[in-house]
Amino acid sequence: MASISNFLLIFFATLFITSESRVVRAPFRPNSLVLPVHKDTATGLHVANIRKSTPQVLVPFLVDLNGNFLWVVCDQNYSSSSYNAPFCHSTQCSRAGDHYCHKCHSAARPGCHNNTCAVLTINPLTHRYTVGELAQDVVSFQSMQGSKMAQIATIPNFLFACAPSSLLQGPFPKSGQGVAGLGHAPVALPLQLASHFGFPQQFSLCLSSSTNTSGGIFFGNAPYKLATGFNNISKSMAYTPLSIGPQAEYFILVKSIKINNKTVPFNTSLLSGTRGFGGTLISTTTPYTVLEHSIFKTFVSFFIEQFVGVPQEESVPPFGLCFNSNLPPTHVGGYPNIDFVMQNRNVSWTILGVDSLVNARPNVSCLAFVDGGLNTRASIVIGAYHLEDHLLHFDLSNSKVGFSSLRKSHPVNCANFNFTSALTPEEDRMRD
Ligand SMILES: *[C@@H]1O[C@H](CO)[C@@H](O)[C@H](O)[C@H]1NC(C)=O
Ligand SMILES: *[C@@H]1O[C@H](CO)[C@@H](O)[C@H](O)[C@H]1NC(C)=O
Ligand SMILES: *[C@@H]1O[C@H](CO)[C@@H](O)[C@H](O)[C@H]1NC(C)=O
Ligand SMILES: *[C@@H]1O[C@H](CO)[C@@H](O)[C@H](O)[C@H]1NC(C)=O
Ligand SMILES: *[C@@H]1O[C@H](CO)[C@@H](O)[C@H](O)[C@H]1NC(C)=O
Ligand SMILES: *[C@@H]1O[C@H](CO)[C@@H](O)[C@H](O)[C@H]1NC(C)=O
Ligand SMILES: *[C@@H]1O[C@H](CO)[C@@H](O)[C@H](O)[C@H]1NC(C)=O
Ligand SMILES: *[C@@H]1O[C@H](CO)[C@@H](O)[C@H](O)[C@H]1NC(C)=O
Ligand SMILES: *[C@@H]1O[C@H](CO)[C@@H](O)[C@H](O)[C@H]1NC(C)=O
């Protein structure tokens, strides 16, 4: 592995030297970067491999749409000649919003220095947290020109947090060595990359529903053309206002829910967003969409009314409603569509019939929604399963998010993006 990445490093370095000796020297300014992402078979969560450190290694990260920065465990296997930890009260620390000084009583190593800045690192799956060290190291990304892969873009002093490996608990993807945060925070990936390269403050998410093919995260210009030969999908994107929660997380306002085009009768005051509580959160670390308990109860009984003639089965956790998946002949009308209606009835997030159910066991399908109980962080949390095969465009400068169901409007999915030249043989092997 090391020899392949060394070879690639030398290969790319040679490319740069030979091309730059002919061309006028100018700093490389990509206007978009792409990060291939794959779905972890065991957890259903999504993992991105990021090129990092000197010598360069590929590090797998859990993708956390609402995370505040990139964090990686570095108490055991982190070895990089380009690692450095800024001193407390430095500009880097204030940029990351860290005002506490770190002290460490063991031998100095990455993550353990005195007078560096302390940063609270959180595991989004267990909500456990611990103090880490703010650090900088070299990080590289694949750049794009239109929908084609271009050269590798490198950031020498990317800010991230260095955390103890005890933080990797819970249903964490097995290979994961940290969390890649995409939240609306100054050193989370989208804003740190936009500020370094000077491209627009926007990013797009296209998660693949298959564990066999990669989806991607696109920083900068949106990949409206997923591949050559496909139409520009910008016209079929619907946009809704985006609001930012107190922990830099992404909320939208769902005004009502429809099943089979009929409004589900629950108290919609639960849906109106007071900042950080109520409202609809979008999350990649929640596998299935979660509904607050009273919404869930009404939603489930309404769904049963719309799905007549299909025998129920004992429910399979974490789901609350399951059916026999062999549709009986007495059933008519197929699977009901579900709409999350936004600012007006023209803007809705549609969950197509088959996507509202998930195969939980042989012959048993469950409604792909989970009862969140009474004190949920948000009344609705749209989870990873319902984000898959949608192109989501987070336009942070204009506080809006666009979405397009690729399944509904286009004969493509997130796996259609041509990563052929983006994946090195090593990355290809690291996928499940
Ligand atoms: C560090 O590397 C060793 C040997 O490769 C491995 O056994 C161990 O699990 C690794 N530790 C972590 C936290 O990844
Ligand atoms: C930090 O300072 C303490 C003394 O205040 C010392 O014992 C410790 O070894 C130092 N840690 C590192 C990593 O240098
Ligand atoms: C993924 O690949 C495996 C083995 O190649 C195959 O058995 C499986 O059906 C594929 N899954 C999907 C969703 O395409
Ligand atoms: C797609 O259309 C949008 C505006 O409608 C435009 O800004 C963008 O450049 C187009 N993208 C491609 C790849 O043609
Ligand atoms: C759903 O209802 C709207 C009006 O509320 C109507 O315009 C639309 O055609 C209906 N769609 C279906 C599939 O019935
Ligand atoms: C909806 O909930 C709000 C706040 O809990 C309450 O004030 C209101 O009366 C409820 N409306 C209905 C129709 O139950
Ligand atoms: C919804 O779409 C229809 C047809 O495209 C349009 O006539 C109507 O004005 C739209 N309504 C709103 C509230 O945007
Ligand atoms: C699933 O249903 C089919 C057809 O009814 C039946 O042949 C099969 O044995 C069932 N499988 C299980 C695991 O129950
Ligand atoms: C993907 O890109 C590679 C390299 O540019 C090209 O050889 C291949 O034909 C493309 N595949 C598709 C399906 O467009």
From TrEMBL:
Superkingdom of this protein's organism: Eukaryota
GO molecular function annotation: aspartic-type endopeptidase activity
Annotated CDD domains: xylanase_inhibitor_I_like (cd05489)
PROSITE patterns: PEPTIDASE_A1
A Pfam entry, by short name: TAXi_N
Keyword Iron-sulfur carried by entry: no
Signal peptide range in chain numbering: 1-21
GO biological processes: proteolysis
Transmembrane regions: none
Family: Belongs to the peptidase A1 family.
Protein name (record): Peptidase A1 domain-containing protein
Biological source species: Fraxinus pennsylvanica
